[in-house]
Amino acid sequence: MTATWIEAWAPADGAARVRDAFEARFGAAPDGVWSAPGRVNVIGEHTDYNGGLCLPIALPHRTYVALRRRRATDGQDDVIRLASAQEASAGVVTVRLSDVAPGTVPGWAAYAAGVAWALRQAGHPVGGFDAVVDSCVPYGAGLSSSAALECAVAVALDEVHDLGLAAHDSGRAALADMCIRAENEIAGAPTGGMDQSASLRCTAGHALLLDVRDGSTRHIPFDLAAHGLALLVVDTRAEHQLVDGQYAARRAMCEQAARALGVATLRDVADLPAALARLAGEFADQADVVARRVRHVVTEIARVEEVVRLLDADQVEQVGPVLTAAHVSLRDDYEVSCRELDLAVDSCLAAGALGGRMVGGGFGGSAVALVRSGDTGRVAAAVAAAFADAGLAAPAFVVATPAEAAGRTA
Ligand code: GLA
Predict the structure, then answer these.
(1) To test the ligand 1 pocket, which listed residue (191, 197, 251) has its Cβ within 8 A of the most ligand atoms?
(2) Taking the model in full, what pTM does it have?
(3) Residue 1: pLDDT above 80?
């Protein structure tokens, strides 16, 4: 069975696409082209909104934005005009920056306009702009196409307004916070921040150990090829079902459990058995569910620490079983997997992967597997065959190598 691979564009090609589209659309040259990557998380799922640890890498797949700041001579300097190659039928979306507020901007444009809104909320003198967006980050695949869009717009606005935030990591952390506000408040998705931090703060060749409790990071060398290994991403093409409501419900239950335990976040649970015993008394009819959710979060944070220890010790093959343990926890305790994700993981393992798990929010999207370098084609073919046998749509594949964060491209 032939597998379909999702290639990343060369940056020069991505830049040329949006620059040409911008000139055709707006009849002027953009001030520049910026881009930001999607991400895949090695381990640490549903930990970010619990003050925990995660370990994403930036993908070579990026979202490109050609942007031009509106000048006084353009008339209304408060106007934002946006066009996306992915949403061509929507044409140009026009909004006034001063009108942007929760619930006012529909669809994809909320992610872009929301960033300008968040910059303004933080006191930065951001005005109107024209922008054209194009992307090779697979959409709806759990690889953070929305964060890539936000972060590309963020670094573009940072530069055209001379804010200087993208020039250093603490500024990038601040930009990530603004992108999170855009997503949480303007786009209305209560996500936890890993994706925006990955897109803005990763470095090529490294995984980003992000401690969400204090915002600190460590760049962990992640050269799987040097160990004869590869990270295979399987985009199951499964539609996210009920993802918003389910994600918000998981988050709310974690926050409720933390309150019941008297801790700021579940990161602060030091003694899991004691915490579970206490929760059993607090949540009579829901006790079992709450216990399983909390157990996932606490054990997942420990798994991130374990993977970092193995990477530091150059014991990279041993990361595999930890990934598989994470999948079992996400499937059985956190209950965010689905048939396609389970099949992707199971068929990778059956074809000889060293470990694998679903990634991102769940209920569809992608899985990752740690495989020997020479096995990527064979494992992908086996997964594609398993999907065909099950009557499912053909999945698509990426071999993920850690790329650089958001920045100016042309
Ligand atoms: C989504 C969210 C992230 C994170 C993951 C699960 O990708 O955007 O903030 O919570 O789910 O780890």
Answers:
(1) 191
(2) 0.97
(3) no
Report the CATH number of the 224-400 domain: 3.30.70.890
For residues 117 and 183, give the distance between their C-alpha atoms in angstroms, rounded to a whole number.
11
Substitution site in 39, 42, 48 for ligand 1 pocket (most atoms within 8 Å of beta carbon): 48
Strand partners, 66: 33, 132
* Separation of first and last alpha carbons in the chain: 39
The set of catalytic residues is: 195
Measured from the Cα of 194, ligand 1's closest atom is 9
Measured between alpha carbons, how far is residue 183 from residues 117, 137, 364 in Å? 11, 17, 20
Q: How far is CA 329 from CA 237, 309, 333, in A?
A: 22, 20, 5
Residue 241 has pLDDT above 80, yes or no: no
Q: In CATH, which of 3.20.20.140, 2.30.42.10, 3.40.640.10, 3.30.230.10 is domain 4-221?
A: 3.30.230.10
pLDDT higher at 285 or 241: 285
Ligand 1 first shell, C-beta below 6 A: 45-46, 48-49, 191-195, 360-361
Domain ranges of the chain: 4-221, 224-400
Other C-beta atoms closer than 10 Å to the C-beta of 123 total 7
> What angle (nearest 5°) sits at the alpha carbon of residue 304, between those of residues 252 and 405?
90
Q: What angle do CA 18, 133, 126 make, to 5 degrees?
A: 110
Task: Report pLDDT digits (tens) over 295-305.
Answer: 999 999 999 99
User: Which ligand 1 atom is the nearest neighbour of the CA of 193?
Assistant: 9
Query: Residues of the chain with pLDDT > 70: what percent?
Result: 99
Over residues 5-20, the mean pLDDT reads 98
The closest alpha carbon to 353, from 332, 382, 396, belongs to 382
